[in-house]
Please model this.
Amino acid sequence: MNYHLVQIPNLLTTNGILDTSAVLAWSENGLATSWEVEVQPTGVVARYSWCSI
Model:
């Protein structure tokens, strides 16, 4: 298995939330240049629920 250390971002903000889209912004804590964003309906447990924001 591959394990990755996940650093939770700072200053997460949302804007323009609509039925099918939203604008997310945050401050990177490390050196990441790509991100994986997981969006799920209310009540569904995220794969990485320990770092829910």
